Amino acid sequence: MKALVTGASSGIGKEMCYYLGELGYDVILVARDKKNLEDVASKIKTNTRVIDLDLSKRENAFKLYEMTKDENIDLLVNGAGFGLFGKTWETDLDRELSMIDLNVTSLHILTKLFLQDMVKRNSGRILNIASSAGFLAGPILNTYYSTKNYVLRFTEAIYEELRHDNINVHVSALCPGPVDTNFNKVAGGSFATKALDATYVARYGIDKCLKNKLVIVPGFGMKLVIFFQRFAPLKLLLRMTYGVQKQKASKGGKNV
């Protein structure tokens, strides 16, 4: 068995690599930071391969596929991504476009290309790391929330296409709430609530993916939030989300 994991140098992606190694998967680790990738790979007992690429450049997504298309990937984990706090008219446009290219464009490219191979083989799994942000609009973290909405709905639609054609390929979207990772340092904020442990989220996500769960939400509290938000008026949800994100960004030193 072989897995390819993007965003493998830190956070949920790193912990997934460790767990996949424990489960007997050979692992291809992909991220920008070669040194960190090599450190992660050194702790995995199965066979590993390190590929250092910046997937915020869409041409590198195509390059990654060409480098690994003959490896018969059993599990693709699209875990690379980042966020950016701030009001939409104040955040850096180039940074946002890089986020869209990483969180959406490269994920779309890799999902599509590997999915085509998996459909031909009639086997394989894809786990796209979305977020609980995928269920909402996100003032103060607008572009990030929007990208995760894309990831979630994109994955759900693929699921139905596969189900309808009775194809033995499975897709899942992991939608955690706050997780104790490097996300806040990159985004420029701090969680207002207690974050879940990245190891727990990674293992939970992989386990549910291997059981063909479509939408995976770790933590009972976040499950409740997602359930009850469907009954709240949209404008109330927007105000509440604004308040939560403003508190996060303020803790990170941002002027909002």
Determine the structural class based on helices, strands and strand pairing: alpha/beta
At CATH level 2, the architecture is: 3-Layer(aba) Sandwich
| Basic shape | globular
* CATH homologous group name: NAD(P)-binding Rossmann-like Domain
Low-confidence region ranges? 184-192, 252-256
Report on the structure:
The protein has 9 helices and 7 strands. It is globular, with a radius of gyration of 18 Å. By secondary structure, the protein is α/β, with parallel strands linked by helices. The relative contact order is 0.14. Strand 5, helix 5 and strand 6 form a beta-alpha-beta unit.
Task: Please tag this protein with its features.
about 260 residues, Rossmann fold, disordered C terminus, alpha/beta, 7 strands, 7-stranded parallel beta sheet
Characterize this entry briefly.
This protein is α/β, with parallel strands linked by helices and 256 residues long. The protein has 9 helices and 7 strands; from the N terminus they run βαβαβαβαβαβααβαα.
